[in-house]
Amino acid sequence: MLTARSLNPALEDPLLDTMNFLNEVTARYPDAISFAPGRPHDAFFDVRASLAALDVYTEHASQSDPLRRSPDQVLGAIAQYGRTKGIITGLVRTMLRHDEGIDVDEESIVVTVGAQEAMMLVLATVLRPGEDVLLVADPTYIGISGIARVLGLGLVPVSTGPSGLDLADLERRIAAVRAEGKQPKMLYVIPDFSNPHGTSLARAARSRLLELSRTHDFLILEDNAYGLFAYDLERLPTLKALDRDRRVVYVGTFSKILYPGLRVGFLIADQAVALPGGHTGLLADEIAKVKSMTSVNTSSINQAIVGGLLLEHSGTFLPYIREKCAFYGRNRDALVASLSRHFPDAARSGISWNVPSGGFFLTLTLPFEVTGALLLESARDFGVLWVPMRYFYLGPGGGDQIRLAFSYLTPAEIEEGVARLARLLAPKLHERRET
Ligand SMILES: Cc1ncc(COP(=O)(O)O)c(C=O)c1O
User: Do residues 224 and 192 touch, judged by C-beta distance below 8 A?
Assistant: First the structure.
């Protein structure tokens, strides 16, 4: 019989146990109000309308087809195995120019099975296990630390503060990795509305980070899953939009803009690669070789749906998501208002929270350690779920924080959820004030 010990060692990682615990608690208390999942709200999933976009795509592809195939013939071709880099790279390129100010060659784009596959492909292509190290902003999205572990890659956490990555700590970590004879090859970072903290990297820090990537010679893996979901300020330029030296590999997704069930994301890898024989290749092509050995190609049907929607919206999703941004922004406001209402004494009680200017997440800081037992009590006795921030950390930290996702609830549910949270915490805060 197989034993767990004989399987991939990543499966023994405590991270997986904590996630199992969270999933178990969620499954056991299905009626609890849940601030746990960072999911887009399903009120926005207009699946039937999106299926009609398939026809928009095939019609368009037929009209511009050099072989003069009919829409039905195009549809038949889509049903076949497809181009590894994807069939909508041109449309994604147009969208990136409109929506992100990113101007890249179509050939440097690979359409992937969500951002998750994009990250896996980048790590599997760029990093050599045992020699190269992935630096990660800590705390981080579990999908990146998880896949790095599955691939047997070394991970080094870099501290974060109220405005994201701590650049001084980054330099210290790079020096320490080099002192051990390893290469800090790549840094993973979510500069906009990060998961889990909800923080964003300031404009000046973005330029400084790009400068550091040149001086210390590392690549940046920029994950921009939430960038379009900005609620207050002008959006800041992505690292990729500022990247003049091709230091940034960029990952995006349609999961939050459209819906996650599509499983369509993409990456940009416009770095030159010196190949044997004195030739120069493109990192996107090397990544495509790895993709051809894993998922072969991203579902062409699903790509065509995304492509049709992009065509319907003239190559930009900015107006399309305006209503969603208004909804999520209202939820953010509702959460902040509920927290202020239910914790009127916050400063004296040692409670604080950030007000993220976009994305799906807010961090609540408490004056005591948050344990799995507290989460269990919260779900069982108070009917409210959340995630201990500790779960997202590689190094120490986050012990006194929780992540509240505000994307998946209505304002009324948010109000009730915070009321329940306040009832859970009241005796603990009182106890602490008395001592
Ligand atoms: C920061 C971040 N990156 C990537 C993903 C995964 O996106 P996808 O559904 O495209 O795989 C998520 C999903 O929650 C996320 O929060």
Answer: yes
Q: Is 253 in the pocket of ligand 1 (CB under 6 A)?
A: yes
Ligand 1 atom nearest the C-alpha of 254 is 10
For the segment 367-406, what is each residue's pLDDT rounded down to a tens digit?
999 998 999 999 999 999 999 999 999 988 999 999 999 9
- Strand-pair category, 248-253 with 219-223: parallel
Token couple for 32: 């609890």
Which residues touch 204 (CB under 8 Å, ≥6 apart)? Answer: none
Q: How many CB atoms lie within 10 A of CB 172?
A: 13
* Of residues 129, 135, 95, the one with CA closest to residue 111: 95
| pTM of the shown model | 0.96
The CA distance from 229 to 207, in Å, is 22
Tell whether the model's pLDDT for residue 434 goes beyond 80: no
Task: Please give the Cα distance from 326 to 111 (Å, whole number).
Answer: 28
**What mean pLDDT comes out for the span 404-427?**
96
Q: Is the CB of 143 under 6 A from ligand 1?
A: yes
Report the nearest-CA residue for atom 2 of ligand 1.
Answer: 225
- CA 293 – ligand 1 centroid, Å: 22
Ligand 1 binding pocket mutation candidate from 41, 122, 253 (most atoms within 8 A of CB): 253
Burial of 425 (0-12, 13-18, 19+ CB in 10 A): buried
- pLDDT tens profile 173-231: 999 999 999 999 999 999 999 999 999 999 999 999 999 999 999 999 999 999 999 99
What is the pLDDT confidence band of residue 435, given thresholds at 50, 70 and 90?
low
